[in-house]
## 1
Amino acid sequence: MKRFTGDLQSCKYEVSESGQGSITLHVQGKMDASNAAAMIETFSDLVKDRQPRSLTVDLQKVSYLDDFGALVLVETRKMMSNGKDHFCLQNVNDEASKVLSILNFDSLEKGDAFKKKRPPAVLIRLGEATIHHASDLKVLLSFMGSVCLSLLHVCSHPKSLRRDDTFLCMQKTGVDALPIVGLISFLLGLIMAFMSSVQLRQFGADIYVASLVSLSMTRELGPIMTAIIVAGRSGSAFAAEIGTMKISEEIDALFTMGFDPTRFLVIPKIIASIIVVPLLTLFSDVFAIIGGLVVGILTLDLTANAYITQTIKTLTLFDVFLGVFKSGVFALLIAWIGCLRGFQVKGGASSVGQATTSAVVSSIFLIILFNSVFSVILRYWE
């Protein structure tokens, strides 16, 4: 019988090898996380070199064995030709026996290994995406019908409108957003005036900076920038508010008590948005013109009177009302898609976050899409 010993940090081992292909490992000390990796590597090399028919692990002198020690035993058993050769434990003390019993050592290797799930084929994913979008379109149309019916009911029964909630929503959507809308519009007008002045000054056409700023802001940039800011602030807030009520089952409670959730929650938000977003757009136009005025006075040597006179000459009532009308449409889209995403929340808090993100992204997409439609219509109308 051959014998040799080894030292693995807090654990020692002795190997006794018989002439019939049997090996006995006498382990001493601790079998824990500090030496588990080294033991697995050493025992693996031992099994590969000797290729025994039988391996016995003697745990009589093991003073401590934890989950990692049990893992060493499991891996050592796997090394024995996947269980075809003989493997056994002997002299298992009470403490080690208790740990192995808790971990159900005998069945650890018998369980099927986790198999990597293959991703579905391209056609399957395409079909799933198509079904998902078709289902989403169905929900979208259903919600649109519910909103239209609720609006008709409120128009025919004005007292059914929740006025307090409508005024509160007007304050949050309009009044609270005024500082950020004003600041961004002022800076936008300032930047446009500064950049255009560099080119127009070469031709002695400084005064047309006022025309460029006022016309572009009133017809295009004012409504779009205001709508994007409102989508980021209020559209996400609508989705988060209704989504939170959905997961806390407050909407189910409203339905059970006989309230129409669409009329109760959505209509005040839509009406408030349609009223205040066009007003915000007018403020945005004014602040942008002021920004351009500052650049005109400071860098182009224009007088305030000349700048304002040129702005009034450029703008028509049609330009102003066009921006206001587009803002009303954008407000309807923002409130509608924000509330829809809130009603689509399922599951927990993470779903609310996804709904708010989707509300903002969908709102911005619809704003750009409808603005493009308006541009095409105006191109052939004017």
## 2
Amino acid sequence: MTNSTPPDSGINWSLTHVRDRALDPFILASVKEGDRVLDLGCGVGDLLLRIKEEKTAVEKGVEIEGSLAAEAISKGLSVIQGDIQENILDLGDDSFDLVILNQVIPVVREPVGVLLESLRVGRRVVVTFPNFAYWRTRSYLYWHGRLPVTPSLPYQWYDTPNIRLVTIKDFRALCSDRNITVLKEGYITLTGDRSARPIRMWPNFRASSAMFLLAAPGRS
């Protein structure tokens, strides 16, 4: 998943495959039959293909890395290769029923701009991200004095694509400040066998990843 780096950046995106797919059931539950869906930073199109096949959706993807975009296109998906921060500006208001930002917010240069543009072009927006307030992340830094390397944050500090750090509380505050309507929230943590376990209590402390379903101010 990428959108702030040059094409074919050399980042090993396979490291985040388990994390990136963990919230697919939550995202799929947000898609309605026949929806027009835009997946920004769609990678090789695994999620977009499921949405197309299981929800009979009209799909569109944007992916900056040429090799990933080519693989997605080879699956029969409608995907363009480009920077989402540039491509989204060309889209009209309410062009899509659902826009997906799956693990994209931490890697873009202007996360607020991308979020607000997504709310302009889509009637609903799904946002997922790793929660930097997760207790394992906190304890790793506390006890080791080093930036954490976990299943949700599998890179070293020098090769991570994440240029923005965000917690669940931070994101809720952003939505409140911008009067963004939160329609639904979901949280998980990855277990030892890398399966996703839902988290319902104290998500800012106990969840490794979060999902928000949003609508623009005044919409529900």
## 3
Amino acid sequence: MSPDDVVEEVKKSGLRGRGGAGFPTGMKWSFLAKPEGVPRHLIVNADESEPGTFKDRYLMEHIPHLLIEGIIVASYALGSNTSFIYIRGEYAWIVDILEQAIQEARNNGFLGKNILNSGFDCDIHVQRGAGAYICGEETALLESLEGKRGNPRIKPPFPAVKGAWDRPTVVNNVESISAVVPIINLGGEEYAKIGVGKSTGTKLISACGNINKPGVYEIDMTISVEEFIYSDEYCGGIPNGKRLKACIPGGSSVPILPANLLLKTAKGEQRMMNYESLSDGGFQTGSMMGSGGFIVFDEDQCIVKHTYTLARFYRHESCGQCSPCREGTGWMEKLLWRLENGQGKMSDIDLLWEIQSKIEGNTICPLGDAAAWPVAAAIRHFRDEFEWHVTHAEEAQVRNFGLAHYADPIQPIPA
């Protein structure tokens, strides 16, 4: 196969980026500029830092050769002779696993000069980050890779034209690149037959929270959310017969959904575990597949408390480059602390709503949106819970979260 043939097969497969945005991978590859005499690069984004998301860790830890093979094939398609894996600092032990797998590939002639007499040269280098969430954003990742502070760049120019060291660069997630291997083995059209609609292939979901069987699951995207939560094949239901209250279906940055909108859409249709169904209804009644970080909350969980926890995270991880994000995330954290600890006022809820709306869409990179969306969705769907923290200040301070005051949870599904 020629490099262009590989790109065409990935296009036919319909593979969507598994890092969160869901942009078609083959189309992203076709945007890569190819100026004469200028090196190009493939960079694998392994800076998996979103709370609740740990699927890439599983891939790299348990089947690193799948990722290495995917990098070699993708590098051939893109004309990258030097490719990189940029991995988060906390995954220190996985660096050793990847380095060993890369060396084994070199020893067997799958990396280096003139791979298998193909005339193609390629090598892979692992670069460890310092553990900053912002470096999962592709342009901040490029800055960090170049040895600079991991601040996002203004786009355009896009990395496909001016990326690492001003050279054309493609940045893809670990799961996306690992999917290239089955696509080439099966053929793009056969791969596209797995799944449904524009949600082709399989998807890794890292499931956690109040479920009996937390872990990483590979799913066919034709299953329902209800089956994923309650079947023994996947999450195994909610411990101790508790009722389902809410779920963040795609990593901490995507909107939380109350149980009634999680299992069925606003139109009353069964909610499915795929890109289209999870986003049905937009942010008013839907959410996103995101990075596949599936966080389940049972009836005992306090949405205000969890929203405060997420706000603390995004305030800490903001790089501070944009004023709306730098100032706004700090104010959201302060207001949520007051509400969580029974010191809030009704006007604080409206102020919180106004602040998140000033952050969304007004920052260089998506971290501002990632900080704003959880707050907006929590107020949209659980405003009564925020108000309860104001009207029952003493109970809130001693953590006596009476369930009767909260949004209506879903009864357990009969066995």
